[in-house]
Amino acid sequence: MTTSANTSTRIGVIPSFSPLRTIRLGIRRIPVELKMYFRAGDQVFFTFLFPTLLYSLFATVFSDQDLPGELTMATYYLPGMIAGAILLSGVQNLATDIAVEKSDGTLKRLGGSPLSPVSYFVGKLGQVIVTSLLQIGLLVAVAVFAFGAQLPTSAEAWGIIAWVYVLGIAACAFAGIALSAVPRSGKTAAAVVIPIVLVLQFVSGVYLQFSALPEWLQSASGVFPVRWMAQGLRAAFLPDAWAAQEPSGSWDLGIVALMLAVWIVIALVLARLTFRWIHRDR
């Protein structure tokens, strides 16, 4: 009996943990994930600092443009950039990070340890939530103190921001996990993921005024969650009169919530079906 038990341990039989301990192990991984995240300089630039730097560029270049209702470009660009920050934190961050860890053998080693996939992803999701909130905080601070952007003043508007963030970060995080299965190696992960993320931002009203896009492009962007995050955040940051600039002439917050919820389900199913500790062909 003793020999059998020792043999089982050596060949890597993973013990069964209770759900509470599984979550607790995941929470303990969050500081580890954060340390690895901030040690990667290129990742910090392209996912953490990039939205703030790009916002500063746009707010400076287009500062002289007049908008109806005394709305400044600094305020107009802020909701779209926040949506872009959520997209970068969830999709780009996780897709490239997991693809690299899968390629360099990190996931293979973790797969042979007592750490369950649930604990692993609790750590990843915790890192995404912390870094995205810090990222948004930095972006908002620069927007307000450096460019005079106006923040919402009503509790209702802040409530909209809160639920758009929760649904958006969940949808983007699960989508990032699913997308991590696409790159064939860690070396190609950035080349695969970054163009996808950039195109989604351009067609979803992050970098360009959404009402200025062709109607067919506005409709096509409705397939993806970033368009709905940007629309929901515009409803919180912009005056009600700006709802007329949306494709339907209103903010459609119910549809925003529905589409983000649908994306959470779709992305979660895809992530569950595609995630492997190692590439399938290895």
UniProtKB/TrEMBL annotation:
Parts of the chain that traverse the membrane: 44-62, 74-100, 121-148, 160-182, 189-210, 253-275
Sorted UniProt keywords: Antibiotic resistance, Membrane, Transmembrane, Transmembrane helix
Subcellular location: Membrane
Domain ABC transmembrane type-2: 42-278
Chief location: membrane
Membrane topology annotation: Multi-pass membrane protein
The protein's name in its UniProt record: ABC transporter permease
Organism: Paramicrobacterium chengjingii
Lineage: Bacteria, Bacillati, Actinomycetota, Actinomycetes, Micrococcales
